[in-house]
Amino acid sequence: MEYIALFFTGMVATTLGTLAGGGGLISLPVMLLLGIPIHSAIGANKVSNTVSAFSSFLYLLKHGQISFKESFWVIPISVIGGISGGIIASILSSKYLFILAIFLLMFAFISSFFGKDQFQGNQKLTINKISLPGLYSIGIYDGLFGPGQGTLQLYLFGYLKISYLRAIAYSRLATFSSCFGAAATYITTGHIIWSYTICLLLGSLSGAQVGVRIAEKLKPKIIKPLLRVVTVALIFQIIVNQLSGN
């Protein structure tokens, strides 16, 4: 029964994660409720996110939403950002990470009410004074803390006037990049419980494909309200986890 629960958890969490980020809102608490050790739960999420994120990116790449030529530079920036975040995390206390997470998510939430952009732009992602430090900073955040990384990326791409489907493709590529190293670490340190991880992975692959197909049909005006709901839920979860000592 727990294997079936993990499959559907992966499907639902990755569908949400593809559309607006925040899939960890669902997957991690469910895995902990099932009695899976915290490191094994995080590792399973990293492994499944690596594969499912790349499958979403490939789908949008094959359907001509983006080209690899315009997006490949996202990979090293996200990887370097994640490494930088991991180094900084070893220095900062958890209290400061908590404050940073809340600040960034609240800033993104408030900023979403300014401007009329609704992910209807036709811009391509290029290296400029906003995109480069923006992606690098979110990579650092992912290495530091993590929850809401995909949501923050979508806010950034919306600000850059990139269409919703392009934004998802870039976000999935960045997620793949940042999770790849983390997944390798959890595998090599022996924290992966493969029976659970494979069930979550199969569900995540299904959710990734469901998510991109739903995204193709969503009206742009729905995207920002969806992001705001996910952002508020992320802030609430982070505060609850901090107060409970998790």
Describe this structure as you would to a colleague.
It is a single chain. The protein is mostly helical. It has 11 helices and no strands. α3 runs antiparallel to α9, α3 packs parallel to α10 and α8 runs antiparallel to α9. The longest helix has 25 residues.
Global shape: globular
What series of H and E elements makes up the topology?
Answer: HHHHHHHHHHH
Largest sheet: none
Task: Figure out the total of helices.
Answer: 11
Structural class: mainly alpha
Please give the domain count: 1
Query: What fraction of residues sit in β-strands?
Result: under 5%
> First CA to last CA: what distance?
26 Å
Rg, alpha carbons: 17 Å
**Low-confidence runs:** none
Overall pLDDT: 86
Secondary structure: helix percent: over 70%
What's the β-strand tally?
0
Subcellular location: Cell membrane
Family: Belongs to the 4-toluene sulfonate uptake permease (TSUP) (TC 2.A.102) family.
Pfam families: TauE
Protein name: Probable membrane transporter protein
